[in-house]
Amino acid sequence: MFSNKDIEQFANLETPFYYYDLNLLQRTLSDCSEAAKVYNFHVHYAMKANFNTKVLQKIKLTGFGADCVSGGEVSKAIEIGFDKKQVVFAGVGKSDKEINNALDQDIFCFNVESVQELAVINELAAVKGKIARVAIRINPNVDAHTHHNITTGLDENKFGVNSWDLPACAETLKVSEHIEFIGIHFHIGSQITNLDVYKNLCVRVNEFALWFEERGFTVKLLNVGGGLGIDYHHPEQQIPDFAGYFKIFSDFLEVKPGQEVHFELGRALVGQCASLISKVLYVKNGKKKNFVVLDAGMTELMRPALYQAYHKIENLTRGNKVALKYDIVGPICESTDCFGKEVEQPVTFRGDLYAIRSAGAYGEVMASKYNLRDEIRFVYSEDI
Ligand code: LLP
After folding, report:
1. Which of 38, 200, 243, 335 is the most buried (most CB within 10 A)?
2. For 234-261, what is the mean pLDDT?
3. What are the tens digits of pLDDT across the range 11-57?
């Protein structure tokens, strides 16, 4: 919820911009950290969700590690001050340059996604005379029951090592002198709201851990990835149920003495802390449709255009007395540049301020320059 003072301040700023509520971020991080501590679980923040500098600094201060998916993210994590021993590097297409950079930084672990990648990391580590710690990312063929574009753990997805490739993987591990196998990694998808999915994942994790142990490997690390969803329909219910989420893993994972359980949460930590604030440029009342044309578009927040994702949209200037249905669209020359269709809103006028809520995850980071748009702007709650 925004106070009248917030809204007055927004009116003085050039739109569109992301507004970061750093207090809410802090509360979310503390909640998650406390809930994880109960079970001695380790959290790595999935940087891809948001790498805004102040957001990262707060996350680092919470003591979380960093889950990176590119050389750029590894470098940024280290520049921000994340402990190298808490940096993990996943990704289905790590380039030689990225692997070399991560080896030079002595990061904690590579989450390896294919047998071929394993051999390449071994070769590159050999040249440097180093030993690379790796976890094998296994594709467990568990349905995350989320949007198909953000499902990653099914046989048809490109991610991870499929179960039929595990024997070859084990053979490669045995002959790779510059690799230290430390455990197994999973990530089955994002925006998961049906938590039963995680019970199914735990069953598969237990099976795969046993598979490796039966072949003489010590599985020190169980990394179960991220994916915990947020409530886009009720942004005011801002902090996800971390305690309930971690409890599932405590109840269903068979954790042996000496084993560590790691998580890679992105959206759940940052999703609710930002809104995209935009101004109404034009209102078009038509025969079939009414349109509100905002000064923000898919170039600032891509999720609705890319995944038909729902974000709650609010007219900040006129309150919440709904009167008309509008399609809320952006200025980009694409028909998919639409934040919501037939959305009930108060009667809207040029100059009204709109907020698109729950935009902290995969928002600012996915902004693009398409149509040669301005660089995306952002403000922090503590600066206004
Ligand atoms: N770990 C790995 C290996 C991942 O690929 C991801 C996200 C995460 C962790 C963090 O997932 P989270 O906790 O944030 O769900 N752009 C899409 C989401 C893509 C997710 C990619 N991987 C969206 O806007 O919905």
Report:
1. 200
2. 96
3. 999 999 999 999 999 999 999 999 999 999 999 999 999 999 999 99
Question: What CATH superfamily is the domain 22-270?
Answer: Alanine racemase (3.20.20.10)
* Residue of 368, 316, 310 whose CA lies nearest to 342: 310
pLDDT digits (tens, 9 = 90+) for 121-136: 999 999 999 999 999 9
Cα 314 to Cα 320: distance, rounded to the nearest angstrom: 7
Task: Decide which of 131 and 287 is more confident.
Answer: 131
Give backbone dihedrals phi and psi of 233, rounded to 5 degrees, phi first.
Answer: -80, -25
Assigned fold of 4-17+273-383: Lyase, Ornithine Decarboxylase; Chain A, domain 1 (2.40.37)
| Other beta carbons less than 10 A from residue 5's beta carbon | 9
- The rounded distance, in Å, linking the Cα atoms of 186 and 205 is 8
How confident is the model at residue 142, as a pLDDT?
82
Q: How far is the CA of 54 from the centre of ligand 1 (A)?
A: 20
| pLDDT grade for 150, boundaries at 50, 70 and 90 | low
What atom in ligand 1 is closest to the CA of residue 152? 5
Question: Dihedrals φ, ψ of 101, to 5°?
Answer: -60, -45
Mutate to test the pocket of ligand 1, among 267, 301, 302 (most ligand atoms within 8 A of CB): 267
CATH topology identical between 4-17+273-383 and 22-270: no
Helix (H/G/I), strand (E/B), else coil: 101:
helix
Which atom, in ligand 1's list, is nearest to the CA of 227?
A: 15
Can you spell out the DSSP letters for 318-380? TTT---EEEEEE-SSSSTT-EEEEEEEE----TT-EEEE-S-TTTTGGG---GGGPPPPEEEE
